[in-house]
Amino acid sequence: MEKKKLHSFSKILSIAFAYVGIVTGAGLATGQEIVQYFVSFGFAGIFGAVAISILFMLFGSWILSLGSLYQSDSHMEVIEDVSYSWVAKILDWALTFTCFVMSFVMVAGAGSNLAQQFGTPTWVGSLVCALAILGVSFLDFDKVTAALGVFTPIVLVMLFIGLITVVTGPSIDWSSQFGLAAELPSSIPNIGLSVINYLAMCLMTGTSMLFVLGGNVMGIDNAERGGYLGGFFVGVISLITAILLYSKIDIIGTDPIPMLTFMEDIHPWVGLMMFIVIFGMIFNTGFSVCYSLGKRIAGEDDSKFKKVMPIIVLVAFGLSLFGFQELVAVMYPIIGYIGIVLLITVAIAFFGSRKDIMKEKGLRARIYALMIKRQDKNQPWTKKDKHKMDKLVDKSFSDNDEMKSDMKEVVEEYHDFDEDQE
């Protein structure tokens, strides 16, 4: 049985999980971001968490679709085509700066996570994370994508375990908890601005890698749906995390890793599992920003990439020693305000490219069908077919040789899959 479409649920799920892995890093997995941006506003934080879910779905879908349209290897390949040159330069510098800042914030988060769990010096966890980032950065990109998504289903399970304990446990005076939460300090003046700042901050952190992720997806529908599903997962994680933190805010509100304290209170083994998940999510974002920064500096020069990655990781480790909680409180809001320019640019770019995206979907579907025909020994491959394919490839946004090569890989992947099912 042949696949006639470029859609694949397994691919969509893989993209969604990778999206979550890229966007949900140290701050969200630890609960520190949720406390800063939502819980500290009391009951209003619940509405903020719902709003952020919808925005993550929309912007994730838009960014991944644009990345797939342009088959991008870095954020500049998209930004240069969808905005004015001066805007592109500003965003390039901003995204590069964000990747740089987040590299050492994530490594610092790894240090705090290990220190809270085992009492080790913070530099030990930071060093382990830095070495892991360096090692994985030299793997094949498909393996990297799989690695980014591996902790997503686990963190969802952990959060639902926490939610069950809250629902089935002793009754909670939610009014009192919301009141205590509202007394916590926040760097943002109101919940509306906090939602926008949080979205902008997360996307400033993840957009560079999301463009690269989308650029490695041939089926634009896969990228689009993966963005919606991934955004939904991020929203669910944010909302459940907020509810859990509200439930014990009187105990864990000032902890550097509040989610770890929450899970340890359920059972030490649950706390240990959460420690592993948090470390994995920290690694995901740490790797994403370091990898994106390396790609931005090295371009398509693999040898240069291998030389700059150790330098990036070494600098990230050195700067991580300033401390995780302090870095989150100071750097995240700054990045979020800068990121509002990115949100506006992405929205304008997507709506301005909708016709191109629809056209490209049709072109790739027809190229895909012709590729299947060329591979099928039971169907004749004519000069007319070759001419038709060349004409379609010329019309595509992608480089001609890259389009043929990448589409061939997709066809072979699906073809092998079908044979296994027969």
- Major pleated sheet: none
Write down the secondary-structure element order: HHHHHHHHHHHHHHHHHHH
What CATH calls the topology of the largest domain is Hydantoin permease
How many domains? The number is 2
Helix percentage range: over 70%
InterPro entries: YkvI-like
Transmembrane segments: 12-31, 37-70, 90-111, 123-141, 148-171, 191-214, 226-246, 266-287, 308-324, 330-351
Keywords: Membrane, Transmembrane, Transmembrane helix
Account of the 3D structure:
Keywords: Membrane, Transmembrane, Transmembrane helix. The chain crosses the membrane at residues 12-31, 37-70, 90-111, 123-141, 148-171, 191-214, 226-246, 266-287, 308-324, 330-351. Helix 6 (85-118) crosses helix 7 (122-136), helix 7 (122-136) packs across helix 15 and helix 17 runs antiparallel to helix 18 (383-395). This protein starts with 8 loop residues before the first helix and ends with a helix. The protein has 19 helices and no strands. It has 422 residues and is mainly α. The protein has two domains: 9-353, Hydantoin permease, CATH 1.10.4160; 362-421, no CATH class.
Write a concise synopsis of the structure shown:
By secondary structure, the protein is an all-alpha fold. The chain has helices spanning 9-23, 26-30, 32-37, 44-70, 75-82, 85-118, 122-136, 141-149, 152-168, 174-182, 191-215, 220-247, 249-252, 258-266, 268-298, 302-319, 324-375, 383-395, 400-421.
